[in-house]
Design brief:
The protein is an all-alpha fold. It has a domain of 133 residues: Tetracycline Repressor, domain 2, CATH 1.10.357. It contains nine helices and no strands. The longest helix is centred in the N-terminal third of the chain and has 25 residues. Pfam families: TetR_C_6, TetR_N.
């Protein structure tokens, strides 16, 4: 996390530079020297305010997570509380459209996923993100299903989001938001049909 006193104008500049360098050379080769050159700042500024590469990567992921969360919250705020299926798709869309689907952001996410297995702070951020997604989904699903079913279906949708997102990120054509929406809507419709017959 950046130290108090970090000029607010510098944070977006450094986050953007971090994503650009990861996009170009990958996470492991994304050195402080390359990032500082991209941002047009000295390496000392990054080391002083972020404590090095790990701190800057953490701040980059925090910014991506903030934008991700804001996108979903804004989308949900525009929909009626009773439009449960639309609200679920709005949560899904938050993972596949706009900022989250930009190439540099997607590559940074992918690097973050792999890095979080070995970095406790990044692993904690990943868990926060996962819990937030499941919480958003379960709130909407509990209006359509019992609590146990909502839990299972929320995990199913989260797994579909992760899988579709991963495949899309590794695909040269990128993420297909329409296809993602179709697949998850189809899964949700099947769950609604299945549980309505019970």
């Amino acid at each position: 996390m950046p130290k108090v006193g970090m000029p607010e104008i510098r944070k977006p500049q450094l986050v953007k530079a971090t994503m650009a360098v990861i996009d170009r050379v990958g996470l492991h080769a994304a050195s402080i020297a390359l990032i500082s050159k991209e941002a047009g700042v000295s390496t000392g500024i990054i080391n002083h305010y972020f404590g090095g590469k790990h701190g800057l990567l953490e701040e980059t992921m925090r910014e991506i997570l903030r934008q991700h969360s804001a996108t979903i919250i804004q989308s949900l705020a525009r929909l009626p509380k009773e439009a449960y299926q639309q609200r679920i798709i709005a949560i899904v869309d938050g993972n596949f459209v706009g900022f989250q689907a930009e190439n540099q952001v997607a590559k940074t996410w992918l690097a973050f996923w792999s890095y979080s297995m070995h970095e406790p702070q990044l692993k904690r951020l990943q868990r926060v993100n996962e819990k937030r997604l499941l919480s958003h989904l379960k709130i909407e699903l509990k209006a359509l299903f019992g609590a146990d079913q909502a839990e299972v279906i929320a995990h199913g949708i989260a797994a579909l989001i992760d899988g579709i997102w991963l495949r899309g990120t590794l695909n040269p054509q990128g993420i297909d938001a329409d296809k993602a929406r179709f697949i998850i809507n189809d899964y949700l419709d099947k769950q609604l049909t299945f549980y309505s017959k019970k």
